[in-house]
Specification:
Strand content: 5-15%
Keywords: Signal
Distance between the termini: 11 Å
Number of strands: 10
Number of domains: 2
CATH architecture of the largest domain: 3-Layer(aba) Sandwich
Protein name: Leucine-binding protein domain-containing protein
Number of helices: 12
Organism: Oerskovia douganii
CATH superfamily of the largest domain: Alpha/Beta hydrolase fold, catalytic domain
Oligomer: single chain
Structural class: alpha/beta
């Protein structure tokens, strides 16, 4: 038995970009830089809040601080005394849910309230974080070196700089399992609510695994889930199994990144220019400046798959896979969060031929109840009923 599908703007975890938004990526300091124009990503400042970046749900938005790191969330109460709460997570990482990816929020809220749940939506910390100069410099150097040395990886010193200046677990733009658990605990205490259910799509499976150790009774229902805990080579190998798009020359980081973008979004050169597509994969502008959204993306992606060392081996014989290997070089050395576990009542609807986020089994997902859908698209299948 399945519930109706709630349409949303699908966040493609493997790329960290979106389908359903304007193909000319909007200039927005909290999101992808405008890769179609001669601009650099706007600097993040400590003044970011519920007012900015803009959100259509400002009246329901709140800020909180955990260990000197700020984030924001929206809580839609079923009534003044309601405690039972459901997290809605349309995916990620590297996207601002409250700014761009709420989808039909009225329908989502109404559905939760009909089932007598408050609805909770949480933004990733990078959205309101300051883009520190050290991290900005590290990311731009990482991209420049990856471009110059391709298909070899970026210089090891620059890879290390990204790990140290941007992806450390204490960095303000980073989301870790521990930080997510702290955020939920703070919201529960401050708002006098209790999280009992988590629903959504794609990377929502990772956020569910963050909470499994502290919320073992959590009910999890996710459509087209990200395969948390799977080997990186298996996941990216599956996403890069289709032929290179016709008419696209390969062999440079820019062209191979464009090929990877096209393959994983289902778009073509008729939809979006290859130069724009290549920048979109890395979230860069024409000056080689990398958006802080890419830091947010790597901070979770690196901690959600395993065996990154195998991704850093010799070139992998496929232009799309090589581009992913280059972009994710900073993930080598990261381990899966040891506290990650999925609650006993976890239900997934897996798309049999999911181009964006193919399903790869792992030990972490072995006990989940899985329905297979033969038709549909990523983020547009039924969220399973799970009780």
């Amino acid at each position: 038995m399945k519930r109706r599908t709630i349409t949303y703007l699908a966040a493609i975890a493997a790329v960290g970009v979106t389908v359903g938004v304007s193909l000319a990526l909007k200039a927005d300091p909290n999101g992808p830089p405008d890769v179609s124009a001669e601009t650099s990503p706007a600097a993040h400042t400590a003044t970011y809040s519920c007012e900015y970046p803009a959100t259509t749900v400002e009246d329901f938005c709140s800020m909180l601080e955990v260990d000197n790191v700020q984030t924001r969330y929206a809580l839609f109460r079923a009534d003044d005394t309601a405690v039972r709460t459901m997290i809605y997570d349309p995916g990620g990482p590297g996207v601002s849910i409250l700014s761009r990816h709420m989808g039909d929020i009225e329908a989502i809220v109404a559905d939760a309230h009909e089932r007598r749940y408050n609805l909770l939506v949480i933004d990733e910390p990078w959205v309101v974080a300051e883009y520190r100069d050290e991290c900005r410099t590290a990311m731009s150097g990482y991209f420049a070196s990856a471009t110059d040395r391709y298909p070899a990886l970026a210089d090891a010193s620059l890879v290390d700089a990204v790990r140290g200046e941007c992806l450390d677990e204490q960095a303000p733009a980073v989301m870790t399992g521990e930080r997510y658990r702290q955020i939920i605990a703070e919201i529960e205490q401050t708002e006098n609510v209790h999280v009992e259910r988590l629903e959504g799509y794609s990377f929502a499976s990772v956020r569910a695994a963050y909470l499994g150790s502290t919320h073992p009774d959590l009910v999890v229902a996710v459509g087209t889930p990200f395969p948390v805990g799977a080997p990186a080579t298996a996941f990216f190998g599956a996403t890069s199994s289709s032929p290179t798009p016709a008419g696209l020359n390969t062999g440079t980081l820019a062209s191979d990144s464009a090929a990877a973008y096209y393959q994983m979004t289902g778009l073509t050169t008729d939809d979006i220019d290859p130069t724009v597509a290549g920048r979109a994969l890395w979230q860069t502008d024409s000056d080689g400046q990398v958006s802080l959204s890419r830091v947010g993306y790597l901070s979770e992606m690196c901690r959600s798959l395993t065996e990154w060392d195998k991704m850093s081996a010799d070139t992998l014989g496929n232009p799309m896979l090589n581009a992913q290997r280059s972009m994710h070089a900073a993930c080598n050395g990261f381990d899966l969060d040891t506290q990650m576990t999925l609650p006993e009542r976890t239900c997934f609807t897996v798309l049999s031929n999911d181009i964006q986020t193919p399903w790869v089994e792992s030990e972490l997902t072995a006990e989940a109840r899985i329905d297979v859908s033969e038709a549909g698209k990523h983020g547009l299948v039924d969220i399973p009923t799970c009780n």
